[in-house]
Write a structure and sequence with these properties.
single chain, Methyltransferase, Methyltransf_12, 20% strand, alpha/beta, 10 helices, 283 residues, seven-stranded mixed sheet, methyltransferase, methyltransferase activity, binds S-adenosylmethionine
Length: 283
């Protein structure tokens, strides 16, 4: 499973960097509801390269914060990030995976944060059970970020091809991910939402809230690069599934010589909505 992630470091890191303002809102919301004191432990399970872990370290300043991920490249990058930020011994990265019994050594945790991981796993309910076993009895909180809305980057139909182009692009991408991840046995697209899955795992659902990543035009060069990279990847993944008309529209978005291209559009923005769900052990 981790081999799948090896080539994704650059993408996951760019996503994590651009999403930071949204992740910070979610972390602040969590810290306002549940602020364990000095000496508490926060785990970021499936941390990737540790972008959100840094935010957690800042929003939970009295806590030991541990980034856990099975992909060695990611934990190495996370450790380098923490050193670059001068976060000291309070924040560290460790190998570990949901499904590996050694994860239990990190219990008890006051907060278990797990973003965009559980839906990739073959049995999300078993994964939630395993995460809940890491929580401090009675008081620990599990924060799972999953789902939201498809992101948008340009007004209307993106000004290329038919106005419905953007909807077909999203639908094709969504089908592609469900099919690809199903090959690994993942349960993506199962159609049951997280409060129900929490109940199946013996967890009590406390709250859900959706946060926006709202980066309006004009965007910075870094954000524009992130969007261009994202569409380049979309073209690589699903270009051959599009109609010739939609493929031509996508090519226009990526052609730097075209005034309608992402690289040239002054109206480029990022609007993304991600939902965080909080749960605790049902006692
Ligand atoms: C989409 S990335 C999310 C990274 C980060 N949480 C974020 O929100 O940016 C999914 C991460 O899950 C990790 N992962 C894969 N299998 C896992 C498992 N069984 N337990 C924990 N993490 C896993 C991958 O290595 C990857 O870093």
């Amino acid at each position: 499973m981790t081999a799948i992630w090896d080539d994704e470091l650059a993408t996951v890191e760019r996503d994590g960097t651009v999403s930071e303002p949204m992740v910070r809102q979610a972390a602040r919301w969590l810290a306002a509801r549940h602020a364990p004191g000095t000496g508490s432990r926060v785990l970021d399970v499936g941390s990737g390269p540790g972008c959100a872990t840094v935010v957690l370290a800042e929003e939970f300043p009295g806590s030991e914060v541990v980034a856990v991920d099975p992909t060695e490249k990611f934990t190495a990058r996370a450790a380098a990030r923490f050193a670059e930020r001068g976060l000291g011994e309070r924040v560290r990265a460790e190998p570990g995976a949901i499904g590996d019994p050694s994860l239990a050594a990190l219990a008890p945790a006051d907060v278990v944060w797990c973003a965009h991981v559980v839906h990739h796993l073959p049995d999300p309910v078993a994964a939630l059970r395993e995460l809940s076993a890491l929580l401090a009895p009675a008081s620990g909180v599990l924060a799972v970020a999953e789902g939201g809305l498809p992101s948008r980057f340009l007004p209307g139909g993106y000004g290329v091809g038919l106005p419905s182009f953007v909807n077909r692009l999203e639908a094709t991408l969504s089908d592609y991910f469900v099919e690809t991840w199903s090959l690994t046995g993942a349960a993506v697209g199962g159609g049951r939402d997280w409060p129900l899955l929490f109940a199946d795992a013996g967890l009590r659902h406390h709250a859900s809230r959706t946060f926006l990543l709202d980066l309006p035009a004009p965007v910075s060069d870094d954000v524009r690069r992130h969007v261009v990279d994202r569409f380049t990847r979309i073209q690589r993944l699903i270009g051959d599934r599009l109609t010739s008309q939609d493929a031509a529209a996508l090519a226009r978005l990526l052609d730097p010589a075209d005034s309608a291209a992402l690289a040239n559009r002054p109206d480029l923005f990022v609007l993304q909505a991600t939902t965080w769900h909080l749960a605790g052990v049902d006692i």
